[in-house]
Design a protein that fits this description.
Blueprint (H helix, E strand, L loop, with lengths): L3 E4 L4 E5 L4 E3 L2 E3 L5 E6 L13 E2 L5 E3 L9 H4 E10 L2 E4 L3 E6 L7 E2 L14 E2 L13 E2 L5 E2 L14 E2 L14 E2 L13 E2 L5 E2 L14 E2 L14 E2 L13 E2 L5 E2 L14 E2 L14 E2 L10 E6 L4 E2 L14 E5 L8
Parallel strand pairs: 2-10, 25-27
Antiparallel strand pairs: 1-4, 3-7, 5-8, 6-7, 8-9, 8-10, 11-12, 13-14, 15-16, 17-18, 19-20, 21-22, 23-24, 25-26
Protein name: Ig-like domain-containing protein
GO cellular component, one term: plasma membrane
Keywords: Disulfide bond, Repeat
Length: 336
């Protein structure tokens, strides 16, 4: 009998450096299958002293570690459990492992000034390095009052929706907007429109006048050899009901929007300098020229000393030829 999972690991495992984590993987079969942990590219992982250990029972262990021992290729990695035997093999779902370095943080609320009796929107500022792992349970005032985000604090008062006048030539179309007071706009929805004669119009109906229209292209002048962006102008009354299928040149040539017309030329990615206190983290951005940005992806980041950092969504040991690689010229003590 081929391998069958008895206990498949979860899709996501988040833990702090103070607690560590153990990811279980158990399988059965005849003969009893072996448990192997592999990366997203299929390469097997082994023990890393003090940081990662594969137990004889097949569990993957991440012991508690010091903040300075954080390693992205270990603690921010995509793993999967492989159960294999002479009778076959089976892969588990991807296991997204993410370790967080525990450190003190404090939330803050920026001041907002409003006229007495008016409303104000307050924002709870949470440090970015912990924002994904905490949630707001309640708000408290200086007087000890408590407000829960799930409750709807709406002032019950009279309001009226209005429609601004739009003047058009008889027979033409116009777009009308239903104005609703901001303090209640999130709690009501437009069910229908009514005119002075009592006629009703529902928003989900397509009230479009069938009439002739023509798409146009505005002229763009550029130096010979340069590129230009052309826009297909479609009348507003029909723009939501048509789509551009293709572009045609005056010589009869046709271009489809889904096709990528890119001029092959040399380009160079760059990284903006970021200064941080030693031991802190920084977010670096790889700047890629706009004309090529949609056609390349970042496979890795490389430091001046040759150390390679691979994004957790694309962990690979080899960098494919022709793929963009961002070089980091400034030394940052830690990169999380």
């Amino acid at each position: 009998m081929g391998p069958v999972f008895v206990k498949e690991p979860p899709n996501r495992v988040d833990f702090s450096n103070g607690t560590g984590a153990e990811v279980e993987c158990q399988a059965r079969g005849n003969p009893q299958p072996d448990i192997i942990w592999v990366r997203a590219d299929g390469t097997a992982v082994g023990d890393v002293p003090g940081l990662r250990q594969v137990l004889p029972n097949g569990n993957l262990v991440f012991p508690p570690f010091r903040a300075e021992d954080y390693r992205q290729e270990v603690h921010a990695q995509v793993y999967s459990c492989l159960a294999t035997s002479p009778a076959g093999s089976v892969h588990s779902r991807d296991v997204n492992v993410r370790a967080v370095v525990a450190q003190y943080y404090d939330t803050d609320v920026n001041k907002e000034y409003a006229i007495r009796g008016n409303s104000a929107i307050l924002k709870c500022v949470i440090p970015s390095f912990v924002a994904d792992f905490v949630k707001i349970l309640s708000w408290h005032t200086d007087q000890g009052e408590e407000f829960v985000p799930g409750d709807d604090y709406v002032v019950h008062q009279y309001y009226q929706s209005e429609v601004n006048n739009e003047y058009v030539i008889r027979g033409n179309s116009a777009i009308l907007k239903c104005s609703i007071p901001s303090f209640v706009s999130e709690f009501v929805q437009v069910v229908g429109w009514q005119d002075d004669q009592g006629n009703s119009f529902n928003p989900n109906e397509e009230n479009v006048v069938v009439q002739y229209y023509e798409a146009e292209v505005v002229s763009e002048y550029v130096i010979r050899g340069n590129a230009a962006i052309l826009k297909c102008t479609i009348p507003s009354f029909v723009a939501e009901f048509v789509s551009v299928e293709s572009w045609e040149g005056s010589d009869g040539s046709r271009y489809k929007p889904s096709t990528d017309y890119v001029v092959a030329q040399t380009y160079q990615p760059e990284i903006m300098t970021e200064y941080v206190i030693r031991g802190n983290s920084a977010i670096l951005k790889c700047s890629i020229p706009s004309y090529i940005a949609e056609f390349v992806s970042i496979e890795a980041w490389i430091r001046e000393d040759g150390e390679v950092y691979v994004p957790e969504y694309q962990q690979t040991d080899k960098i494919p030829q022709g793929i963009t690689i961002c070089h980091r010229h400034e030394f940052i003590n830690s990169l999380v």
